[in-house]
């Protein structure tokens, strides 16, 4: 086969450091657009970005030439700097948690994940981020020690 073809969807979930509610409603749309711009600049199409005050969900398509960890490093590093430059210039208090969740999504599951991300506010009327994150880990059969989930 002369060419390589891939379609790799990843659903990332990560929170602000210590789950601080620093993504204020008036910042959200600008942050989601900025994150989409990061993806565009690095050849990582952002299908959907959204979340609530203390965490973010991000659905992207990655190529076979960039790792899952490098991808999230680009998004977290660039967006954290931007949030501090734009919204927290005096305190520089905005940080993402050091870890993240990255979950593979099938092509047939993309629409459902998009819906899930776009409806975060409604979803979190009934479930905390902590509960949601543990639910995802269990759903994907990921073993974890809760002592090391949070920073």
Question: Which key features would you list for this structure?
Answer:
single chain, 151 residues, alpha+beta, Alpha-Beta Plaits, four-stranded antiparallel beta sheet, 5 helices, globular
Notes on the protein architecture:
- This protein is an alpha+beta fold and 151 residues long.
- It has a single domain, classed as Transposase IS200-like (Alpha-Beta Plaits, 2-Layer Sandwich), CATH 3.30.70.
- A hairpin with a 2-residue loop joins strand 2 (46-52) and strand 3 (55-62).
- The longest helix is centred in the middle third of the chain and has 19 residues, at 68-86.
- The protein is built from five helices and four strands.
- The mean pLDDT is 94.
Any chance you could write out the topology, listing elements then pairs?
Layout: E1 8-15, H1 25-41, E2 46-52, E3 55-62, H2 68-86, E4 101-105, H3 110-118, H4 120-123, H5 129-139
Antiparallel strand pairs: 1-3, 1-4, 2-3
| CATH H-level superfamily | Transposase IS200-like
**H and E string:** EHEEHEHHH
Beta-strand share of residues: 15-25%
Report the CATH architecture. Answer: 2-Layer Sandwich
How many domain units? Answer: 1
In the CATH scheme, the class would be: Alpha Beta
Spatial ordering of strands, largest sheet = 2-3-1-4
CATH topology name: Alpha-Beta Plaits
Give the low-confidence spans. Answer: none
Sketch the major β-sheet: 4 strands, antiparallel
Q: Estimate the mean pLDDT confidence.
A: 94
Derived from helix and strand composition plus strand pairing, the structural class reads alpha+beta
Total beta strands: 4
What general form does the structure show?
globular
Number of helices: 5
Please report the distance between the alpha carbons of the first and last residues: 46 Å
**Alpha-carbon Rg, integer:** 15 Å
Question: What percent of residues adopt helix (DSSP H or I)?
Answer: 25-40%
